[in-house]
Amino acid sequence: MTVTVRFAPSPTGHIHIGNSRTALFNWLFAKKNGGSFVLRFDDTDKERSKAEFADATELDLAWLGIQPDRVERQSDRVAAYDAAAEKLKAEGLLYPCYETADELERRRSRARALGRPPVYDRAALKLSADEKAAFEAEGRKVHWRFLLPNHDGDPFAPRRTEVTWTDLCRGEQSVDLASLSDPVLIREDGTYLYTLPSIVDDIDMGITHVIRGEDHVANTGVQYAIFKALGAEMPTFGHHNLLTTRDGEGLSKRKGALSIGSLREAGLEPMAVASLAVLTGTSQAVEPVPNLEVLADKFDLSSVSRSAAKFDPADLDGLNAKLVHDMPYEVVEDRLRSLGIRASETFWLLIRENCEKVSDAQHYWQIVYGSVDSKVEEEDREFVAKARDFLPEGDITEETWGTWTSALKAETGRKGRGLFMPLRRALTGLDHGPDMKALLPLIGRQNILDRLPG
């Protein structure tokens, strides 16, 4: 069996780091098992689905390193869903209903008041042809429900019916179909809800494993019944915990919180995002991983915790900085050039440990080759002016800093912070930064003299 997984976002907004968790789980699982990854857009909601969101999703996935083996759009497959719906109708498993939303809510409220679960009572199954015609005459639109197999022939006498499966993340799971309402599969306007198209696609596309958020656990029982009604085997399921902020706040595409696009524009590295999205909420340490191949080796669905995967967005900055600190020059050379930095390997290796993001290199490029807002305290002004006279002659090398500061120490009696900090502030405008011994040759004699008051 060839492992085939899918990531099926609705193109109704920009995907966020929580969505990327699901996409990465599926991608890494496929790659680890020599399988394939299907990107399938759930775009049957014509009003909310936008082509620009689908395009943005593909761009975001590519930035993370995910290249789908196949891209599908549910809007192209409506005929397949129609055929499945007709099959279920013909078998009496998809039945018409006419209740309004207000009527259904009143029934649920009455059930709760009586201490009963608010499960649909299947009243529509009792409607006569005349009653259906009367509803249609008054302008009511029909919606269609799937009859769950939770009875022994009498749908009005449901019995406990357990659907069990071994979940890749949660172990043994079960859902009692008697505790659920018959799901609506087709809306009043004739459009499909998520459930039926997803199942038809999973069957037709040979999806072997469905890895998704734990908010879908209860849906699995319903989907099992529909798979069976359509004569198909259910895939293997895995329901992972959801990514939330430290305060437990959920993420939303509509709110745009922590969208992949915004993280990319903020200058974060894709592997900082991927490392946090995948490793948070598992038994493994959250640490920066250099590439998806290494992350695939670490990836293990059985290590996913059953509690919420809480994270602090600020953690991304720390992970990002660690990745940048280890980046070789050849990895960033083109990126530096695109930032207008004509840097050498010497420059990058010197400043990278002071950068949280690659774009921070612009700041140090300015310090080395541009103008600097020198900071000289009033009490240090005479000392810095004297330093100008003690700058060693000849080429500025890595030995220059030691020779220079030793001479100044002997002349002024200054030492430690009182010796080094005024010079650093005058030459770089900073209180801390790259090693002055190595930075001085890059700054060069003329810039050094220009930044020291005469």
UniProtKB/TrEMBL annotation:
Assembly behavior: Monomer.
Function: Catalyzes the attachment of glutamate to tRNA(Glu) in a two-step reaction: glutamate is first activated by ATP to form Glu-AMP and then transferred to the acceptor end of tRNA(Glu).
Record field: catalytic activity: tRNA(Glu) + L-glutamate + ATP = L-glutamyl-tRNA(Glu) + AMP + diphosphate
Family of the protein in this entry: Belongs to the class-I aminoacyl-tRNA synthetase family. Glutamate--tRNA ligase type 1 subfamily.
Domain Aminoacyl-tRNA synthetase class I anticodon-binding: 376-452
Organism, as annotated: Roseibium polysiphoniae
Main location: cytoplasm
Binding site for ATP: K253
Subcellular location as annotated: Cytoplasm
UniProt keyword annotation of Nucleus present: no
Signal sequence bounds: none
Residue stretches making up the Glutamyl/glutaminyl-tRNA synthetase class Ib catalytic domain: 3-317
InterPro entries: aa-tRNA-synth_I_cd-bd (IPR045462), aa-tRNA-synth_I_codon-bd_sub2 (IPR020751), aa-tRNA-synth_I_CS (IPR001412), aa_tRNA-synth_I_cd-bd_sf (IPR008925), Glu-tRNA-ligase_bac/mito (IPR004527), Glu/Gln-tRNA-synth (IPR000924), Glu/Gln-tRNA-synth_Ib_cat-dom (IPR020058), GluQ/Sye (IPR049940)
Chain positions of motif 'KMSKS' region: 250-254
Pfam families in alphabetical order: Anticodon_2 (PF19269), tRNA-synt_1c (PF00749)
GO molecular-function term, one example from the UniProt record: glutamate-tRNA ligase activity
Protein name per Swiss-Prot or TrEMBL: Glutamate--tRNA ligase
Annotated EC: 6.1.1.17
Stored PROSITE patterns: AA_TRNA_LIGASE_I (PS00178)
The keyword RNA-binding appears for this protein: no
